[in-house]
Design goal:
This protein has 457 residues and is of the alpha+beta class. It has helices at 2-15, 20-39, 77-83, 102-130, 201-211, 213-216, 246-251, 256-264, 279-287, 313-317, 322-331, 347-359, 366-374, 380-384, 388-392, 401-418, 440-449; strands at 46-49, 56-65, 74-76, 92-96, 137-146, 149-153, 158-161, 177-187, 192-197, 220-228, 232-239, 269-274, 292-298, 303-308, 334-339, 454-456. A five-stranded mixed beta barrel has the order 5-6-7-9-8. Strands 1, 2, 3 and 4 form a four-stranded mixed β-sheet that branches. The protein has a four-stranded mixed β-sheet with strand order 10-11-12-16, sandwiched between helices.
C-alpha cells in the first residue's frame, strides 16, 4: 500500500497540479481518528507519513513521571530515558505509539481521506485559478449531464453549465466542444464551483470584443445590448473616431466578422444599430427596417409613441413583439407602436364634395347641383355628356335644363382653353387632377438617410 500511496501522490501532482505536501498533510490529519481507535485516547496524538517509503506512524506527547497512573498520557522516567537519556521529570516527551498492524487499519482510512483531500485541493485550486477570470470566455468539452445541467470538462477542471444559463434552442451532445462565459466562481477556497453561461448578454459582448479589434481597443464603444437568447440580439455601437464606421466595422468584410459570431450562437439573429444621442433617431434606427410615420416623445416618462402604416405594423412590432421589446430594453424607453388610422371619406362627404364641385360652376346653383348629384351626375364630364331633354326629366331641373347644360359646356370649354392636353387638345377633368406624388421623394430620402442596420441570420 505504501508504494501505491506514494505513486498516487505523484500522479495527482503531475496530472492535476495538486500540491503533494498538502495532500499528504490532509491524509495525516485524517489518520488521527484511526490511530485513536487503535491506540486509545493518547495525549496530543498525531500521525506522520514518511515522504520516501509511505510508512505511517503514530506519535503521542506523554508526561514523564516517577510512577505511571495513566498509560494514555504518562510515561515512566525509566522508559523515557531509553528515548532521551537526559529527560527530566514532568517533561513532555513525544513517543512513537504505532500499534501492530496499524498500516493495514490505516490503509482503509487513507484511501478515503486521500479522495476527500483531493476534492478539497481541487476546489481550492479552482478558486485560485478562476477567481480573477470571471467574464472570460473558455472552451470545454461536454462531459455529461446532471438532469438539465451540463458538465463541462475544461481540462484540469470541471465546470457547470446550469439549466438557467443554457440557451433554450440549443441541445448539446457528449464530447461536443462549446465556448462559454465564466459567469461566477461560487464558494470559497475549500468548496468552489465554476458556473458557466451561454445566455448572458456579456457572452455576446465578449464575442464581439474578441472578433472586432476596434471594440477591443476602444475605438468603437458598445452603448447598449438587448438579447433574447437563441432568437435575436440588438447591439448599439458608437465610434469615437469619425473615420471609422461602427456598423461596418462590426459587420466586417463581406459580413465575415458577424457571421463568425452568428455561427457561434447557432444562427441567432443579430441587429447592429448605430447609436445616437437623439432618441427619435436612436429608436428609428433600432426599429429598422420598419418605416415609421410619426413619433411622439414624452421625455419625462421616457415613453415613445410610434405611429406606422398598417402594412408596417407587424414589421415594427416583430414576431411576438420581439422587435419592439428588444428596442425598449436597448433604449431604456417604453415603446408603444400603433397603426396610423387612414382618413376615409364617407359616402355623405363624397356627395357633399361632388355638390360643391358642380355648384362652383358659374350658372349652376347649389340646389341644381344637389339634384344633379342625386341623379348620378357627379362630374363635369358626366354632365356635359347628357342631352338637355334628359336633364329636364330630373326633378327640379325641368325649367333649367338648357341653362344648366349651357353653363356646363361653357365651363368645359373654359378649362380646355386654359389648360389643354398637348396630345388630345382636351383639358383634364377638374375634379380628377393628376399631380405628381409629392410624398414619394421625401419618403425615399428618409429611408436613405436612416442609419444602416445590419441583420445577420
Amino acid at each position: 500500500m505504501n508504494a501505491e500511496f506514494i505513486a498516487s501522490m505523484e500522479y495527482w501532482e503531475r496530472e492535476k497540479g495538486l500540491d503533494r505536501e498538502i495532500l499528504i498533510s490532509a491524509v495525516e490529519d485524517a489518520m488521527v481518528s484511526a490511530a485513536k481507535r487503535a491506540v486509545g485516547p493518547a495525549r496530543e496524538l498525531r500521525c506522520e507519513i514518511d515522504r520516501k517509503d509511505g510508512d505511517i506512524r503514530a506519535f503521542a506527547s506523554l508526561i514523564v513521571v516517577e510512577t505511571v497512573t495513566d498509560k494514555q498520557s504518562e510515561i515512566s522516567l525509566e522508559s523515557a530515558k531509553r528515548h532521551k537519556p537526559d529527560v527530566q521529570l514532568d517533561e513532555e516527551l513525544e513517543v512513537e505509539v504505532t500499534p501492530k498492524n496499524f498500516g493495514r487499519i490505516a490503509s482503509q482510512n487513507a484511501k478515503q481521506a486521500l479522495m476527500q483531500a483531493i476534492r478539497r485541493a481541487e476546489k481550492a485550486l479552482v478558486y485560485s485559478e478562476f477567481k480573477d477570470r470571471v467574464g472570460d470566455i473558455v472552451s470545454g468539452e461536454v462531459r455529461g449531464f446532471d438532469r438539465s445541467d451540463v458538465l463541462i470538462d475544461l481540462g484540469k477542471f470541471e465546470a457547470l453549465l446550469p439549466n438557467r444559463e443554457r440557451v433554450p434552442t440549443e441541445e448539446y451532445q457528449r464530447s461536443e466542444r462549446i465556448r462559454c462565459l465564466v459567469k461566477a466562481v461560487q464558494g470559497s477556497d475549500s468548496h468552489s464551483e465554476i458556473i458557466l453561461s451561454r445566455r448572458d448578454t456579456d457572452f455576446v459582448l465578449k464575442l464581439f470584443q474578441l472578433e472586432v479589434s476596434e471594440i477591443n481597443d476602444g475605438t468603437i464603444e458598445v452603448k447598449g445590448i438587448a438579447r433574447e437568447p437563441g432568437f435575436r440580439t440588438k447591439l448599439a455601437v458608437h465610434s469615437r473616431d469619425e473615420k471609422v464606421d461602427p456598423v461596418g466595422a462590426c459587420v466586417g468584410l463581406r459580413g465575415q466578422r458577424v457571421k463568425n459570431i452568428v455561427r457561434e450562437l447557432n444562427n441567432e439573429k443579430i441587429d447592429i444599430i448605430r447609436w445616437d444621442t437623439d432618441i427619435e433617431t436612436y429608436v428609428t434606427n433600432s426599429l429598422a427596417p420598419a418605416q415609421l410615420k410619426r413619433l411622439e416623445i414624452d421625455h419625462d416618462k421616457k415613453r415613445a409613441h410610434i405611429l406606422v402604416d398598417p402594412d408596417q405594423l407587424s414589421l415594427a412590432i416583430g414576431r411576438r413583439g420581439q422587435n419592439a421589446r428588444l428596442t425598449s430594453i436597448l433604449t431604456g424607453w417604453q415603446i408603444d407602436i400603433d397603426p396610423e388610422e387612414e382618413v376615409r371619406v364617407g359616402f355623405e362627404e363624397q356627395v357633399a364634395g361632388a355638390v360643391e364641385a358642380l355648384a362652383a360652376i358659374p350658372g349652376i346653383e347649389k340646389e341644381q347641383a344637389d339634384a344633379l348629384v342625386h341623379a348620378g351626375l357627379l362630374t363635369l364630364d358626366a354632365l356635359v355628356g347628357v342631352e338637355a331633354e334628359d336633364l329636364a326629366e330630373i326633378p327640379g331641373l325641368a325649367d333649367h335644363a338648357e341653362s344648366v347644360q349651357a353653363a356646363a359646356r361653357a365651363e368645359k370649354e373654359r378649362r380646355a382653353g386654359s389648360n389643354p392636353n398637348p396630345l388630345t387638345g382636351e383639358a383634364p377633368a377638374a375634379e380628377e387632377p393628376t399631380e405628381p406624388a409629392e410624398n414619394s421623394v421625401p419618403e425615399t430620402g428618409a429611408a436613405e438617410e436612416a442609419a444602416p442596420t445590419k441583420e445577420a441570420e
